[in-house]
Amino acid sequence: MFIYKWPADKQNGTGVVSQHSECHAKGGGISSYAGNKGGAASSLEECMGKAMLEIPKSRHKLTPVYLGATAGMRLLHISKPKESDEVLKEVADKLKTYPFSFKGATILSGQEEGAYGWVTVNYLLENYIKYGFVGHWLSPGRDTVGALDFGGASTQITFETKQTVENKDNLMKLRLYGRDYQIYTQSFLCYGRDQVLFRLLALLMKTQGSDRSIVHPCYPAGYSDSVKLSSVFDTPCNERQTHYKPEDVLQIKGTGNYDQCLGNVSRLFSFKNCSYSRCSFDGVFQPNITGNFMAFSAFFYTHSFLQEATSMSITSQEHFEDAIHVVCNMSFQQMTTKFPGQESRLKDYCTVSAFVQVLLFNGYGFDFHSFPHISFLKKAGGTSVGWSLGYMLSLSNLLPAEDVLLRKSLRSGAWSALIVLFCFLLIVALYFLLRAIRKKDTGNVI
Predict the structure, then answer these.
(1) In Å, what is the CA distance from 181 to each residue of 33, 166, 342?
(2) Count of domains for the chain
(3) How far apart are the first and last CA of the chain?
(4) Coiled-coil intervals in this record (predicted)?
(5) How far is the C-alpha of 71 from the C-alpha of 155, rounded, in Å?
(6) Is there a domain that residue 361 lies in?
(7) Domain presence at residue 423
(8) Could you give the angle at the alpha carbon of 315 between the alpha carbons of 312 and 318, nearest 5°?
(9) 216 beta partners
């Protein structure tokens, strides 16, 4: 949950929004409560209680509340539409019990999720609007920055392009701060972090011809695990086997082999059958990437782990690939020694890192020239980078601008500058006044 605030007036039709606070609900996303009646609603209580305390009571009825669901709910809607509707209704009914102005719960499309992430990135970088020296909001006229998002169930790429967007499904038009923007955006469902892990397990079972035990080249050597088949195939991203038994257990043994890992991860993509002038993968049109990009969510965590694990400053494609090679060839003992207390997460870093390598370089088309133009960030200016701020910025177009009782004051920096300028002018004025008086006195003596 994110709490945002903005002034009563607006700039060219869009509210100037800033993040007040955030709260992370315990447990999984609301889609994880499918079939668990009351679970999704209960998961909201702690964060909504925090909102009740942080938002002034006098503003409760005037505070709009929106719920946006993303890829996890998109997958649930595909596989179990009835349960998806039930979860969405349950959380909506729960939010209506609070004294805020509930505006609705909706499942965002993948293109919307990508576009809102792009809006957030460029807002935080002040590419739309920035506060000027004398207290006016100004349009800086800078180029926008592309957005790379990597969630649990999907991944998104969004950027402005001057090239023709051959598939109009990838074209979105936005109006923010009095300006129109045309962007390319694409969301790949089933290419999020969690779904990639499940898809790779299913692929290894298929290629090794076993649903009982497999060797996993992306898991570190010395690591072993067992999982129920239900956890692998209870997703529309994986096709269930003919003789699928949910309670059967799969034994997994890690071998820690970078080359074999990369080869298997690459098979999760399809680089054939493109009906456009250029495709990224799976037959999806994509223009050539241009300009700078910001990569956030799981992109940031993956990049951060690679740097910490290898003590490398990753600023080039070569550094990135070298770091992945090192991590994928580390034993589980080496990993746990370096990162004690993180055993449950360590096994997946090689898989995810190799996936990001294929996605960025083979899929999106980044190379040694363009990779240095990617910034991996979690926050910018104290605000979390993600789709939610962009969502609120866009929704604020629908909110009426309230009457402003007082004119917007200058920020402290602008006030300080004006005070210094005033003092300087006052000193100059006094100097010339004293000089004039002395001149007059001298004239009277003569």
Answers:
(1) 37, 17, 43
(2) 2
(3) 81
(4) none
(5) 9
(6) yes
(7) no
(8) 80
(9) 254
CATH of residue 388: 3.30.420.40
Q: Which residues are catalytic?
A: 113
CA-nearest of 42, 39, 29, 19 to 95 is 42
- Name the H helices within 61-172: 71-79, 81-96, 110-124
pLDDT in tens, 59-79: 999 898 999 999 999 999 999
The answer to whether the CB of 300 falls within 8 A of the CB of 310 is no
Q: How far apart are CA 293 and CA 371, in angstroms?
A: 9
Q: Taking Cα atoms as reference points, which of 191, 153, 192 lies closest to residue 31?
A: 153
Instruction: Name which residue leads in pLDDT, 416 or 4.
Output: 4
**pLDDT (0 to 100) of residue 229:** 94
Q: Mind listing the pLDDT tens digit for each residue in 367-403?
A: 999 999 999 999 887 788 999 988 887 776 643 344 3
Do 256 and 199 reside in the same domain of the chain?
A: yes
> 223 and 165, same structural domain?
no
Q: Are 165 and 199 within one domain?
A: no
Greatest Cα pair distance, the chain, in angstroms, is 119
Sheet order of strands, 224-228 included: 213-216, 249-254, 224-228
**Binding-site residues from annotation:** 152-156
The domain in which residue 260 lies consists of: 193-267+297-376
User: Which residues does the annotation place in the binding site for ATP?
Assistant: 152-156
Do 181 and 210 have their domain in common? Answer: no
The answer to whether residue 151 sits within a structural domain is yes
C-alpha–C-alpha distance, residues 419 and 41, integer Å? 53
